[in-house]
Amino acid sequence: MLSLIPTPIGNIGDISLRALELLGEADTLLCEDTRVTKKLIHILKERYNTPFKEDQEFISLHSHNEQAFIEKLSPEFFEQNVVYVSDAGMPGVSDPGQALVNYSLDNGIDFDVLPGANAVLTAFVASGFEETKMLFLGFLDHKGSSRAAGLQKALHNGYTTVLYESPHRIEKLLLELQSEAPQRKIFLAKELTKKYQTFLRGTASEALQKLNGNFRGEWVVVIEAAQAQADSAISEKDILSLDLPKKVQAKLISKITGENTKACYQRLLQL
Q1: Are 156 and 198 contained in the same domain?
Q2: Contact by Cβ (8 Å): 116, 14
Q3: Same-domain check for residues 82 and 136
Q4: pTM of the model
Q5: Block means of pLDDT (10 residues each) for the chain, length 271 residues?
Q6: Which of 140, 87, 113 shows the shortest CA–CA distance to 1?
Q7: Which end of the chain, N or C, is less surrounded by CB atoms within 10 Å?
Q8: One domain for residues 70 and 30
Q9: Which domain holds residue 144?
Q10: Count of structural domains, the chain
C-alpha cells in the first residue's frame, strides 16, 4: 500500500490526524529529503506523543533520482506500508510524487492521497481575486525566451494565475510584471502559516515599494485574471485553428489579449 501524505507548509499544527496515523504505521518512508522528514517525525513524537515504529526505513526520493528509483521498483515493494512525503505541502505539486502514482496505476497497486496543506490553494484563496478559475504554472524558467513566453502565458490566459518564485528572483519577476502589466493587480504571500506570514496586494510597482528590497523567503505570486481574452468572442484557440502564418496569428492574438506581439510569436514557435 502506498500513501502520499502532505506535510505542513509552516505551522506544525496543520498536520492531520490521518497523516499522524499513517506516518506512525509506515514501514518505509520515501522522502524528498530524509533529514527534513526525520526532523518532522521527531517534532511530532515530542508534541503529540505519537507512537512510531522503531525500525522504520527512510529512503531518499527526489526529482534527481525519482526515475531511476522507479525503474528498479517491483510491485512486491508495496506489500508493506509505504508512504511518500515531500519537504512541505502536497506531493506532486512542484514536488515529486506523480511518477509513483503513475507506477501504482500501471501495476495495480493500492494507493491513497491524503488532502492537506498546500501553498497554491492557500495563496489563491487569500488573494481575494474573484475569478475562481485558476491556472498554476509553478516556477517560471530562470531566463531567456522560455521565461518571457511563460510570463506572457501567465499574464494573458484569462485565468487567475499562481506562480512560485524564489527570493533570488522575486525582484526580477516584479520588475517584469511592472514592465509588461503595470496596472495588473497581483497578490504576494510568503511564510504561509508561519509566525511572520506576509500578505501583500497591489500592482507590481506598489509591491516593490512596500518590500523596499526585502525579498527574503519563498514566494507565492497570484496574478489577477486579464479580462480581454475571457470576454472576446474569438479565442486564441480559434485563431490557432486557422491556416495562417504564425506571425499573423501572433498579431491577432495580441489584439484580443494585450500580449506583446513579439513575445506571443516566440511562444507560438514553442507550441
Answers
A1: yes
A2: yes
A3: no
A4: 0.81
A5: 96 95 97 96 92 94 93 96 96 91 96 95 96 93 89 91 96 95 96 94 97 93 78 76 91 83 88 76
A6: 113
A7: C
A8: yes
A9: 120-227
A10: 2
